[in-house]
Design goal:
Elements lengths: L1 H5 L4 H6 L9 H6 L3 H12 L9 H12 L5 H10 L1
């Protein structure tokens, strides 16, 4: 709808700018700024009253996979980290 409204003013831009999903630098954040925090959070989750919400072995496995270079695991790590 917004494209239709502004198309007469931005016709060149509208035709060449496809919609894109929002990208966040989660891989970089997990590899650098959040690395220690994620490890601490795994331990906190393990001993919290909410531990039954998670499969701790799966959390550890995905975190280990990510640290071993499997970038696909960053999405799963980011999901539970956001929770």
């Amino acid at each position: 709808m917004l494209r239709g409204i502004v198309s007469e003013f931005l016709s060149d831009l509208i035709s060449y700018a496809p919609k894109r999903p929002l990208q966040i630098p989660q891989c970089e954040w997990l590899a650098n700024d959040l690395k220690e925090e994620v490890s601490q959070m795994i331990n906190e989750i393990k001993y919290s009253k909410f531990s039954h919400w998670f499969e701790i072995a799966s959390l550890v496995k995905e975190w280990d996979n990510y640290q071993d270079g499997q970038q696909d695991s960053s999405f799963l790590v980011w999901q539970w980290l956001s929770l």
